[in-house]
Amino acid sequence: MPNVVKGSRQEKMVVVPHRPGRRSILIIALSLIVVASSLGGFAYAYYQTLVTQRGVLVDQLELVQEIEKLASENSDLNQQIAILDRSSAMDQKVTEEVQETIMRLREQVASLEKDITYYRSVVSEEVDDTGLTIASWDITPTNDFDRYQYKLAMRQQDADGDTFLSGYVNINLVGEKNGKIMTLPLKDISKEQEKLDIKLRFKFFQIIEGELVLPLEFSPDHVHIAAVETEPVKKTIDQNFSWVMTN
């Protein structure tokens, strides 16, 4: 018996079986619980991260799709703008072409009206002679100092509208060069005429016109016109016209 002091509180002793492996098991179990808790926390955090990243990816995908949609709409708008620009340019070009055509037609109408007036004056001019006559001779300057436009109107006076007048006419420009008199056939100074004798064949009148070029240092004085009618009657005309400009 162990020594016991009289009057002191005595604790009851409990006999516990000695189990050395249980402590190790508890330590291992606690370690596993700690590791499992850590893994669970990591897994949860990783899951939350994945969820968040997935949400971010979804948002990014939606943004990319929206950007692509806007880019497509922008491309369509640019194409529409390009089409409108081309359409506007074409409309402007068409308008300019129409205006040019209108101006050209107006000029042609004015020229035709002028020719009609001229031809009426040729036909209505009263002359005492019959048969072949010279209705008019005109010489007009151009923008070039050495180039001139000419127009000769030959007429059949008292024409019946059924009979053709036949014949020919010679036109010569007479002037001076280097102090000497010079005669130039029209065919030598006008590309419109190839022959010395210009053929005549008409019922009422015939117009002979073109452009002539004066030689260098040539000073014109007058134009000599000689015409011959062979049918329906025989007739000769010989006439000079002064070198006078008309507008």
Written description of the protein model:
The structure is a single chain. The longest helix is centred in the N-terminal third of the chain and has 105 residues, at 20-124. The strands form 2 sheets. Strands 3, 4, 5, 7 and 8 form a 5-stranded antiparallel β-sheet that branches. The protein is an alpha+beta fold and 247 residues long. The protein has helices spanning 20-124, 186-189; strands at 131-141, 147-157, 165-177, 180-185, 198-202, 205-213, 218-231, 235-242. Strand 3 and strand 4 form a beta hairpin. It has 2 domains: 23-124; 130-242, Immunoglobulin-like, CATH 2.60.40. The protein contains 2 helices and 8 strands, in the order H-E-E-E-E-H-E-E-E-E. The model has no long low-confidence stretch (mean pLDDT 78).
| Low-confidence sequence ranges | none
Let me know the average pLDDT.
78
> Per CATH, which architecture of the largest domain?
Sandwich
User: Sheet with the most strands?
Assistant: 5 strands, antiparallel
The name of the CATH topology of the largest domain is: Immunoglobulin-like
Question: H/E order of the elements?
Answer: HEEEEHEEEE
Radius of gyration over all CA atoms, rounded: 59 Å
Count of spatially separate domains: 2
What's the tally of helices? 2
**CATH H level, superfamily name of the largest domain:** G protein-activated inward rectifier potassium channel 1
**DSSP, total strands:** 8
| CATH classification class of the largest domain | Mainly Beta
